[in-house]
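G.,

No rush on this.
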Amino acid sequence: ATDDVYSACLESAKTTLSITDCHIVELKSVERTLNDTLNNAYRESSWIENEIRQSQEAWVQYRDTHCSAIYSYYENGTMRLIAHPSCMVELTKQRQEEIYTNFVKSY
């Protein structure tokens, strides 16, 4: 699964840039999964589709701002090149699980 590939990538990465690349590849994957989950939520919880869309817009703004703050925190080092995409990956995974649990999974 994608988590195994991601873990293997991080395990074998030897430089800041290769670690960053692992996070960027994983981010693209988890964003696709989140989008698929959102599309399922819009279908399965169609009576509140507008609310889900509004919450998603607010969440994207939060994620981007929060992870940018983490990037700025490490302004004097290369750690920011790892911390920012790592933050994006982790928050996106959490959001996907929240959307799935609240709006897709049968209740």
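When you get to it, here's the other one too:
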Amino acid sequence: YITDQIGEISYEISPVSFYQVNPVQTEKLYNIGVDAAKITKNDVVFDLYCGIGTISLFMAKYAKKVYGVEIVDQAVEMAKENAKNVVKGVLGTLLAQQEEAYTLEVK
């Protein structure tokens, strides 16, 4: 895998993972998303098709909880690993596996 950073968070990216290739612009885009959605510490955010967790983990510091949902096993494993790298005590825990959907909770 390779490692890249968006904002304060470093991400491990596998060769088959989808990833925005311009992390500077990606951070700006994610900040616009946080502002547009008016995410606060009272909100629960769902990141559907979360991939390796870039949006989920980026938004975790703004929300009460963030759930990333993904069906690709390798992406779920990368999201779990990336959750371990998040700053400010954000923890990732695999919550549930229902059929082929996985949920990653970020507290």
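The CA atoms of residues 54 and 107 lie 15 Å apart. Strands lie at 2-6, 9-13, 44-48, 65-70, 92-98, 101-106.

Enjoy the weekend,
O.
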